[in-house]
């Protein structure tokens, strides 16, 4: 079952992206490089609770 998870910027800690992941196959937290509109740059975003 796929569930929605929020992504937070590691630089400014703003939660500005939402993605989906399969919790049965991916047990670890997702990390992606996304564009942060607050930092105005591509930064690492991590999954939040």
From TrEMBL:
Q: Known InterPro entries for this protein? A: Ribosomal_bL33, Ribosomal_bL33_sf, Ribosomal_zn-bd
UniProt-listed Pfam families: Ribosomal_L33 (PF00471)
In the UniProt record, what gene is named as encoding this protein?
rpmG
Q: Which HAMAP family match?
A: Ribosomal_bL33 (MF_00294)
In the record, what lineage is assigned to the organism producing the protein?
Answer: Bacteria, Bacillati, Bacillota, Bacilli, Bacillales
Cross-referenced NCBIfam families: PRK00504.1 (NF001764), PRK00595.1 (NF001860), rpmG_bact (TIGR01023)
Identify the keywords attached in UniProt to this record, alphabetized: Ribonucleoprotein, Ribosomal protein
Gene Ontology biological-process entries? translation
Q: Which GO molecular-function terms appear in the entry? A: structural constituent of ribosome
Q: What is this protein called?
A: Large ribosomal subunit protein bL33
- Similarity field: Belongs to the bacterial ribosomal protein bL33 family.
GO terms for CC?
A: cytoplasm; ribonucleoprotein complex; ribosome
């Amino acid at each position: 079952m796929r569930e929605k998870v929020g992504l937070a910027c590691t630089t400014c800690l703003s939660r500005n992206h939402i993605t989906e992941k399969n919790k049965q196959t991916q047990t670890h937290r997702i990390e992606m490089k996304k564009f942060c509109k607050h930092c105005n740059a591509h930064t690492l975003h991590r999954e939040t609770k």
